[in-house]
Each structure stands twice: as structure tokens, then as C-alpha cells.
Amino acid sequence: MSGDVFTLHRGSRPLLVSLPHVGTLIPDWLRPRLVGRALTAEDADWHLDRLYAFARDLGASLIVPRYSRYVVDLNRPPENTPMYAGANNTELCPTRFFSGEALYRDDKAPNDAEVQERLDRYWRPYHEALAGELARLRQSHGHAVLWDGHSIRSVLPWLFDGRLPDLNLGTAGGASCAGSLRTALMQVLSAQDRYSQVTDGRFKGGYITRHYGQPDAGVHAVQLEMCWSAYMDEQPPYEVDPRRAARLAPVLRALLQAAVAWSPGG
Hints:
The structure is a single chain. The chain is of the alpha/beta class. The protein has helices at residues 48-51, 112-141, 179-191, 207-212, 242-261; strands at 6-9, 15-18, 61-65, 144-152, 167-170, 197-199, 219-227. The protein has a single domain, classed as Zn-dependent exopeptidases (Aminopeptidase, 3-Layer(aba) Sandwich), CATH 3.40.630. The protein contains five helices and seven strands. The longest helix is centred in the middle third of the chain and has 30 residues, at 112-141.
């Protein structure tokens, strides 16, 4: 399934991989209002569609947006409430870079009416497709696992202190998935020693993980936030480092294989 807002590959196994921040397209109507630096879409989750391409071979479904998070953040609640209380956050329609500086030229940020328009035009279609695919997988298999894939610069003082661990598994403190799935994924992380890792640390899962993760209803959601440094250069032009990406690939594959192999009664 393909559309203007996203592409959706429907798989045969009970796993859906969502990459809500991989888009880099900034529409022509928005570009003149942004500061020049924003036009590179620097806060994208760079290259994750490439890193997770193997998910199709595992039989997983894969949903990928086209547009930058600067248009609308698909991993924020439609009510635009902060995801992390007491910390710096970016909004449903972000007005700041992850470094804290302003995205928009003076007086060019969207008003409430425009935020609603973007919600309807870009956010809702993605979530309707995501919810529909989870319902299909749950009906076909009795359960569905949602893997929400993210990546970020390893050091961002405006958002978090110090250096982020390489691999950050989020399960909303264990609320968004069955304990046995959380344990299985933690075992994969602890079995490798190349990458630092943590579960439910600074990044516990955003709106997608928290909203769709309903274990009692048969939908189990997890988020993986990875540092860019694990697979790419952290400075423009944000290119993949083939050697680092190749070293990371077996860990990602093992995680998704564990998610595919898991079952509620297993």
C-alpha cells in the first residue's frame, strides 16, 4: 500500500515495524517559513528504512512516512501534551530543533488552526493505517507486536544529560507489552557486548508505544531508540558508515527475530 503520506508493506507474520521519524520531505509551502538550517531535516531518524529493510524478509509489515517530523510529529499525541513531564519536549508540530534553537523564522510558526490542519492531513492517515494493520495482524495471528524504530544524535544537552546509551529499549515501564516479550528482548541486548544498552531509561516509548501497546487486548508495543553513532556519521551530511551499519545489523536482526518468534503463550 502506498500513498502520499506513507508507504505500507503488509507482511505475513505478527510484527509491524513503524519508523515514524524517517521521513525527510519538507513541502514547498513550508520551506520559506523555516530557517535555512531546517531544510536539511537534521532531526530525522536517518536511514532507518535502509537498516530495517530486512524486516520484510522476516515476514514483518513495515510502515514508513514520507514527510519530515518538522511537518508533524507522528509520535506525539494529537492533544499535543508533553511526552516527558518535567523535561524539554518538542511539540506535535515542532517549533525547535533538538538542540533547542528555533525552527521558524520570526512569526512564522503554525497557529492552532494550522496544527489541526496538519494533524488531519498528515498525522491521521498514518495512524489510521497503523491501527488498521495492527488489527489485521491481531485477527490473523491472535496477537500483534508493534516495533517502533527510532534513532537520535548521541549527545543532545537540550533533551538529556550526558551521552545516551547506544541502544535504548522502551516499554513504558513494562506497561506496553507482555513481560515475557520484554524479557526476551532484554536477553538479546544483554547477550551482546558491543553496544551499551538500557531498558526504560530516558526513552521509555513515545505516543505510538504507549497508545497502541495494550497487552490485554493482544497488541504488544516496544520502542528502540538507537544512537546515530552506532551506524552513521553524526555530522552533516549524515551519511551511513557501512562498517558500523554492518556491525549493528546482526543485533537488529536478532531483536526482530525474537519479536517475531515470541507468542503470548510461548
